[in-house]
Amino acid sequence: MQSRADQIREFIHERIRKVASANRQPAPELHDDLNLVETGLFDSLGFVHLISGIEKEFNIELDTGDLGPEEFTLVGNLVRAAAESPAVASETDKK
Amino acid sequence: MGPVSTTSLSEQLILKILPFVHEAGSAYFDFLLGADAAAVLSRWMLRSSSEVSIERVTLLGEPSDPVGGFIALSGAELSKCRQMDMAALTMSGNRSRREEVAKRLELTRNLFSPVEANEFYLSKFWIDEKHRGAGHGRRLMKSYISAGHARGLTRFFLDVSAQNEPAIRVYRSFGFKEIRESKVPEVGLHYIAMAADIAS
Predict the structure, then answer these.
(1) What pLDDT digit, counting tens, does each position of B128-179 carry?
(2) Are B117 and B154 in contact (CB under 8 A)?
(3) Measured between beta carbons, which residues in chain A are less than 8 angstroms from residue B101?
(4) Which residue from A minimizes the CA distance to B82?
(5) Smallest Cβ distance to B90: which of A48, A61, A88?
(6) pLDDT single digits (tens) A19-59
(7) Strand partners of residue B34
(8) Smallest Cβ distance to B87: which of A62, A73, A88?
């Protein structure tokens, strides 16, 4: 069974592949040191949508703590931060 | 023994010039960053990867009482810095704040033209009000152009608020021409992109 971190990593990799395909660009080599900004695949709005997508898919409130943007835009750091982020109460829980 | 100051020189300088950097981009900053725009900018100024990093500031006059200053960077640097700033903004709040950021970015995504990697972009430009009318603006513009030439760049680019007629006149006098006008009327943003080819 995949760990939560592996699931999040796979989700991010899949997003990268989809965006590259939509832009008719070759997907970059996928590894934890890949910087999402430097791939050129995610503009400002694309990055917000990626983060929102992770939060919705895994039902979390993504918290990157004290990491700066140079750090949390690395796939590995983003995966770790997301895996350690708290779950949010679902709509059902709130009722 | 007197009190020990824990404020670094960079932080002291940022406190001094933050109001000018904020004012130079106030229309856009205030819309995008909201009520705490100044606080956000002061954090960004401490980060090397920010468009408004203190490391990119050129001042005219004494650092203790600068007459004015500017921030300029190449199009290649600008693209990466803006994305780092927007990534920082994205992660600076909770989920609902991110939804708000996404809406604001969507509204303004075509406000500024893309800047080519080999263009030298004037990001911020200011003269302290008490020193205006003494020719310092022209001195600073010459310094900006020299900085571009020192990097081997001869194409100069900027965005200016359409209401800032005095600045537009100065830019025109250096050969800048209006190349694009963009508006987001819903939120009162109106900018003019200007460019000039200036051989060294």
Answers:
(1) 988 888 889 999 999 999 999 999 999 999 999 999 999 999 999 999 999 9
(2) no
(3) 48
(4) A44
(5) A48
(6) 999 999 999 999 999 999 889 899 889 999 999 999 999 99
(7) none
(8) A73
Chain B residues in contact with A85 by the CB 8 A cut-off are none
Task: Please tell me the pTM assigned to this model.
Answer: 0.90
Q: Is B1 exposed, middle or buried (0-12, 13-18, 19+ CB in 10 A)?
A: exposed
Find tokens 């992660």 and name the residue.
B91
The angle formed by the CA atoms of residues A47, A54 and A50, to the nearest 5 degrees, is 15
Examine the predicted complex and report whether its ipTM is higher than 0.95: no
Q: Are B73 and B81 in contact (CB under 8 A)?
A: yes
Alpha carbons B183 and B190: distance in angstroms, whole number: 4
Query: Which residues fall within 8 angstroms of residue B127, CB to CB, at 6 or more apart?
Result: B67, B68, B136, B137, B140
Count of CA atoms in the C-beta half-sphere (13 A) of A7: 12
Q: Which residues of A54-89 are buried (b: 16+ CB within 10 A; e: fewer)?
A: bbeebebebebeebbbbebbbbebbbbbbbebeebe
pLDDT tens, residue by residue, B168-193: 999 999 999 999 999 999 999 999 99
